[in-house]
Write a structure and sequence with these properties.
About 5% of the residues lie in helices and about 40% in strands. It is mainly beta and about 270 residues long. The protein has one helix spanning about 210-220, and strands spanning about 1-5, 10-15, 30, 50, 60, 70-80, 85-95, 100-110, 115-120, 125-130, 140-145, 150-155, 160-165, 180, 195-205, 225-230, 240, 250-255, 265, 270. The radius of gyration is 17 Å and the shape is globular. It has a single domain (about 45-255, about 265-270), classed as Jelly Rolls (Sandwich).
């Protein structure tokens, strides 16, 4: 059962506690893989990005192919509780001109550690949250699909189907940048992620439940069909992502090619196995 409240044009849906949410899906425990130095080379699996929950982000280059009939996004994350961060942005697509034709995939610590997807276009805004919740302990695999034809949004936690929602709008995506871990376009209202992110992928189609389950268990794309972004985040050093063998898409840490305070840190903490 969903409980929905209108905030003007924004429709926010969340699952009632104690109604289908008793069993939370737990992510696998984090494993140290022994990457001895941040200067490790690509292929030394075990690297990830650690974001400080203040101003860290990764700006990805514009991606073509998001304007098809659907989209799937998955990632591994290990969030950290934060006194000042209640909305942890995982991946967002937003125009510099505003919220038109955008999406934001985030973790809502203020709503019981549930996933949320927000959609927006010129007709208004819509959002809904998952039924299940993430743990603060260890890594979790998260995913959503958005079918533009049926306007359905489906959440997955650790490879398992979680819930499906009927969206009221279906924004286009266009060839605009994606923001990983935070969106500086929000300025003082930014919602930066606090914790570790790894293995981020975007497909220009809706994966079925068996494909999402496979992706959550193997750490490798279940299908190359319509795969638009694959960030292994195994660089372990430097300012760029998307430079390892098999990666698709590219981006830079923080505000540019030079080191700055908005750069996430490279970490040797990562989910296992790969």
């Amino acid at each position: 059962m969903d409980k929905c409240t209108h905030f003007g044009a924004f429709l926010l849906c969340w699952a009632l506690l104690n109604q289908g949410c008793d069993g939370f899906f737990q992510g696998p425990d984090a494993v140290e893989h022994g990457v001895s130095s941040p200067g490790g080379t690509c292929g030394a699996t075990g690297a990830s990005l650690l974001l400080d929950g203040v101003d860290d982000f990764v700006r990805l280059e514009p991606v073509s192919g998001l304007d098809g009939d659907g989209i799937t996004v998955d990632a591994w994350l290990r969030p950290l509780p934060s006194a000042h961060v209640q909305k942890h942005d995982i991946l967002a697509r937003r125009s510099p001109a505003g919220h038109a034709d955008s999406f934001t995939f985030r973790l809502r610590a203020d709503m019981g550690r549930r996933l949320e997807l927000g959609l927006a276009n010129l007709q208004g805004e819509w959002g809904c949250t998952s039924m299940g919740a993430l743990s603060w302990d260890g890594w979790s695999h998260v995913a959503f699909t958005h079918d533009r034809l049926s306007r359905t949004v489906t959440f997955y936690l650790d490879g398992q189907w979680d819930s499906q929602h009927q969206a009221t709008i279906s924004p286009g995506m266009g060839d605009l940048p994606l923001w990983l871990g935070g969106d500086p376009l929000h300025g003082p209202t930014a919602r930066p992620f606090h914790g570790w992110l790894d293995q981020v992928r975007v497909w220009g189609r809706v994966l079925d439940p068996s494909e999402v389950l496979s992706a959550s268990r193997t750490g490798a794309p279940v299908s190359q069909e319509a795969l638009l972004v694959r960030l292994s985040l195994d660089e372990g050093s430097g300012q760029r992502v998307g430079s390892c063998p098999g990666d698709l898409g590219a981006g830079v840490l923080g505000n540019g090619t030079g080191e700055d305070e908005s750069d996430p840190r490279w970490s040797d903490d990562a989910p296992s196995p790969w």
